[in-house]
Amino acid sequence: MEITHRQVDGLLLVQATGRLDGSWSEHLSQALDELMRAGHDRVLLEMGSIDYISSLGLRSLLGAFKKFKAVGGSFAIIDPSPNVLEVLEMAGLAAMLLSGRGATAVASVPIEAPAAAATAAAAAAEPIAQPFTHASVRGEQYLSGGPGLRGKAYGDPANLSSAAFVNADNHALKVSPDLLALGLGAFGEGYADCATHYGEFLAVAGAAVYQPGDGSKTCDTLLTEGGYVPEVQSLYGLACRGAFTSLARFEPAEGTDHVPLQDLATLALDMAQADVAVVVIAGESAGLIGAALRRSPTNPPAGAATDPFDFPGIRQWLSFTTERAHIRSSVVVCGVVARAGAVPTALAPFLRPLNAQNNVAAHLHAAVFRFRALPRGAVQVADVVRPWFEHETVQDVMHLLTDDREDGAMGGSTFTRGALWCAPLTLEEGT
Amino acid sequence: MSQATQELSADAGQLPAATAFLGEFWETADLPPALVFPFELALEEIFMNVVMHGSGGGQVPTVRLIIAADTDSITLTVADNGPAFDPLSLATPDIEADLEHRRIGGLGVHLVREMMDAVSYAREGGFNQLRMTKNLAPA
Q1: Nearest CA in chain B to A65
Q2: % of chain A with per-residue pLDDT over 70
Q3: Fewer CB within 10 A of the terminal residue: chain B, N end or C end?
Q4: Chain B residue with minimal CA distance to A54?
């Protein structure tokens, strides 16, 4: 079986040639799965050159239909051969799987490119894509200017180890659409209400999610909706507001099969042309390394005394990943990265080295979803991330860490592909 | 009247060999090319059923393929010495069901029934025998 594809009109036309039988149907399923993971969410399968199909072939078509539907995309068959059409009709699958669009409508479009006029119009409206390579990353960058984000760190994470938080440490953050925040927080009325369940949170694009530190494994999400703006009660963290200035669509460079988080951090600093940058990553995980609070620090276990940011630290408060977690899941990472030699004093308590070379420091939280396809091109943070929070259950919230122990170190988190938004961070005075 | 027989083990890797056997018979017997598709389909569906469900007794069954053609009809018999099982006893799938309720199991046998003019099952001499016949249009 031969499978080729080309892009037409925002659709991916996949052409398969040969037999869709028990020997080859799995091959087609895998090829379609890879295309979905590469970000193609609208697929038309041309079946004019498939002269044989069995029930196992139907199974792979039905599986593809369900998968693309599950990621908010679409999958349909065009131009079926007489044998394929006959079997689809006998199985009662023709109405479901055949595209309403006539075969000729797309078949006549040239293979090389969409119409020139459409390309020119799109170029005028969208920033220009510039190919780049950076360490083990490659892709396209979309750079634009702007002041970036303004914000500040509040509270003191050092209080975590001594369990010294008090009522006055609680900050209420309004989760407006321009807020990007992460730290220790909870949903509730205030300190007293939240004391038993503070946990890791992140907020982006008008959505906030946290993993309650009360032993529950269920993440809690709130969304701005019309006039309703939810609040996060937070003991410490980083909160900033503003617009991102740059975007990179990334994938592994030639000869590598995943992108390490540290390379994305240095890429963000280069793109933002700054020593301190705010980042959001949305993409497919190749394995996350990190930790989550087991219990709210305002309700600490007996004998806890070490700084829980040190890896490996005490395990009474924190649960660490013991292997690369959430491989092939979709993930949203939010946080702040800084060049190690240029960490502002106000941020120093919040940032930890991201790699053994110690050239970049970060504080990053990740929210994990089941796999969702990423729209292509110069997309905005909210366009990608907001639907995930609206339509999917967050499976986990983690503080990303690097495991650089001498023995059996797992290193840092890695990604298969995704989008990285970044901007310089301007720190505000005061607390 | 022409006839051919082939024995294979019920292993998914043998599917191309089974299909090739059918293709060779078609050429030798000079049968209508348009009729090879329903027989290839029927052969795969029944053969893969044996592959997937026939090894319950702990050993891989042997599959015997018998194809016979005369002026009126073509008949393919797929026989296997696995545990006794009549695939025609499977419930017909609900092909009207919507996506969420769609089960693919039983669909293969449904396609065989649709494609063929006559399908029958017998257990003879320790073999499941599924006979599938398609009538030839009078010349």
Answers
A1: B99
A2: 87
A3: C
A4: B41
Distance CA B136, CA B38 (A): 13
pLDDT greater than 80 at residue B122: yes
C-alpha span between A262 and A219 (Å, rounded): 26
Q: What is the separation of C-alpha A45 from the centre of its chain, rounded to a whole number of angstroms?
A: 28
Mutation for testing the B interface, residue in A55, A59, A89 having most B CBs under 10 Å:
A55
Q: Which carries the bigger pLDDT value, residue A93 or residue A111?
A: A93
So what's the ipTM on this one? Answer: 0.91
The token pair at A332 is: 């949203």
Q: A286-314, pLDDT tens digit by residue?
A: 999 998 887 777 766 555 544 554 444 45
Interchain CB contact of B105 with A (< 8 Å): no
The CA–CA distances, whole Å, from A261 to A334, A380, B16 equal 12, 21, 46
For chain B, the DSSP string reads: -EEEEEEEES-GGGHHHHHHHHHHHHHHHT--GGGHHHHHHHHHHHHHHHHHHGGGGSSPPEEEEEEEE-SSEEEEEEEE-SS---GGGSPPP-TT--GGG---TTHHHHHHHHH-SEEEEEEETTEEEEEEEEEPPP-
User: Is B45–A55 a contact, with Cβ atoms under 8 angstroms apart?
Assistant: yes
The rounded mean pLDDT for chain A is 85
Does A65 sit within 8 Å of B37, measured CB to CB? no
Domain spanning B2-135 has what CATH number? 3.30.565.10
pLDDT surpassing 60 at residue A106:
no
Q: What is the mean pLDDT of residues B14-35?
A: 94
* A92 neighbourhood in chain B, CB within 8 Å: 95-96
Q: Which residues pair with A195 in a beta bridge?
A: none
How far apart, in whole angstroms, are the C-alpha atoms of residue A327 and residue A320?
Answer: 16
Euclidean distance between CA atoms A347 and A336, whole angstroms: 9
User: CB distance A87–B111 less than 8 Å?
Assistant: yes
Residues in A touching B102 (Cβ below 8 Å): 62
Asked if A52 lies within 8 A of B114 by C-beta distance, the reply is no
Q: Are A427 and A336 in contact, with CB atoms under 8 Å apart?
A: no
Which pLDDT score, from 0 to 100, does residue A300 have?
A: 60
pLDDT at B81: 93
